[in-house]
């Protein structure tokens, strides 16, 4: 575990009224932090403190560290909304026991909720930032070159076939297998370009950035507001078509697909079983709805409940529910072991929780999907893109490969000129 020294610092939140400028255009290129949906959310820059943690109990240790910081802070917060006052951005490893999770306390946070805008500063050193106009997102980054990541498509399909075989043998019911591709541009990749384009194309998703991992996720793992806890579970996917009739048929096929409904049921049951012990009540839809995005459709269920009086904090709740079947599989321990065995890559923080938590314990964490990890390679012009899909007993490897291509298109479209 690494962290800068924790000292008492003054945290001041200042109301800015109903200003409606684009939050994402305020970010610097380096160290951008973001969690934005439909123009509201949080962006941050500068770094007051950070925690990097790995191994068993990583999230519990992060929670204790954050509680200690908040208890020592001298806070002035007349806004009193979720996300005002002290805020911690976090990006958690898919496998917290083995990967490194990163938490950052920004020097400056600009927030907007329910039309109210505010700025929070921590400490005395508040770095200046130059406005990044939205039209700068259209500046060319030159030619893009894509190469295989850990596995080429043929080999990856072979791993899917092996997973199907293991499912048929009764080793497990479902496993989520992901793949990566590497993209290199002629010019450095400015994270703001990707964030602005993703937010414009996917306004109903949560556009995020923490420690060079950025994307637009449609899946909300946990939101805590007071004693209310919410989640949006996605599992079961269909591609879109530019032909209206074909697109309608694809949507109807997803809505009636036994394979996709089975995959979704594993995911929703996994989340509910993990969350229910901490809740006084929990509402779980009997059937999913169809969520339509520009590039794909998903089966979607919104879960809502009230936490028990003795429920732990948001970071501890994340530790209890992650990974769900939506990104791991069922049963989860067997699925995670199979991922380690056959997937052929280190996921890092892909498919892990990403988001923020404040000093009150309110916060939002999604799953880091539809995302890119800026690697810093080739002068900052390189990134890894990720996509995965749920494998069940009747999965077809080529169809699953096509699903990953449809999901990769979300970030690829943001990169293209």
TrEMBL record:
Reactions catalysed, as given in the entry: chorismate = isochorismate
Enzyme Commission numbers on file: 5.4.4.2
Family: Belongs to the isochorismate synthase family.
The Chorismate-utilising enzyme C-terminal domain, residue ranges: 155-407
Species per Swiss-Prot/TrEMBL record: Klenkia sesuvii
PANTHER family listed in its UniProt record: ISOCHORISMATE SYNTHASE ENTC
EC primary class: isomerase
InterPro entries hit by this protein: ADC_synthase, Chorismate_C, IsoChor_synthase
Molecular function terms from GO: isochorismate synthase activity
Pfam families: Chorismate_bind
The keyword Isomerase belongs to this UniProt entry's keyword annotation: yes
Protein's UniProt name: isochorismate synthase
Keyword Glycosyltransferase: no
UniProtKB keywords: Isomerase
């Amino acid at each position: 575990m690494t962290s800068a020294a924790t000292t008492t610092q003054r945290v001041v939140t200042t109301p800015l009224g109903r200003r409606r400028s684009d939050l994402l255009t305020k970010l610097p290129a380096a160290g951008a932090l973001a969690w934005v949906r439909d123009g509201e959310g949080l962006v941050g820059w500068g770094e007051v403190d950070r925690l990097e943690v790995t191994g068993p109990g990583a999230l519990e240790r992060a929670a204790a560290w954050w509680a200690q910081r908040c208890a020592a802070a001298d806070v002035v917060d007349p806004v009193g909304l979720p996300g005002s006052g002290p805020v911690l951005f976090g990006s958690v490893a898919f496998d917290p026991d083995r990967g490194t999770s990163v938490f950052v306390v920004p020097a400056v946070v600009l927030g907007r909720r329910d039309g109210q805008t505010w700025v929070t500063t921590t400490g005395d050193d508040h770095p200046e930032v130059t406005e990044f106009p939205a039209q700068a997102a259209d500046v060319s980054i030159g030619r893009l070159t894509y190469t295989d990541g850990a596995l080429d498509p043929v080999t990856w399909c072979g791993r899917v076939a092996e997973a199907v075989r293991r499912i048929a043998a009764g080793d497990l019911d479902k496993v989520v297998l992901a793949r990566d591709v590497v993209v290199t541009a002629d010019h450095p990749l400015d994270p703001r370009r990707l964030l602005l384009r993703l937010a414009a194309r996917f306004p109903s998703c949560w556009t995020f950035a923490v420690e060079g991992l950025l994307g637009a996720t449609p899946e909300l793992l946990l939101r805590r507001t007071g004693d209310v806890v919410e989640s949006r579970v996605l599992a079961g996917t269909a591609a879109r078509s530019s032909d209206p009739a074909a697109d309608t048929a694809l949507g109807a096929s997803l809505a009636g697909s036994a394979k996709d409904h089975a995959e979704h049921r594993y995911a929703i049951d996994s989340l509910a079983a993990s969350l229910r012990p901490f809740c006084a009540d929990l509402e779980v839809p009997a059937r999913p709805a169809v969520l339509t995005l520009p590039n794909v459709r998903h089966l979607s269920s919104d879960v809502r409940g009230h936490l028990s009086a003795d429920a732990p904090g948001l970071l501890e709740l994340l530790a209890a529910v992650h990974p769900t079947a939506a990104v791991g599989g069922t049963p989860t321990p067997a699925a995670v072991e199979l991922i380690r065995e056959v997937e052929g890559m280190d996921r890092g923080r892909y498919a892990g929780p990403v988001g923020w938590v404040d000093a009150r314990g309110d916060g939002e964490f999604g799953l880091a999907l539809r995302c890119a990890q800026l690697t810093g390679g080739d002068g900052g012009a390189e990134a890894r893109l990720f996509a995965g899909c749920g494998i069940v007993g009747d999965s077809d490897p080529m169809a699953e490969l096509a699903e990953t291509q449809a999901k990769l298109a979300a970030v690829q479209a943001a990169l293209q000129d």
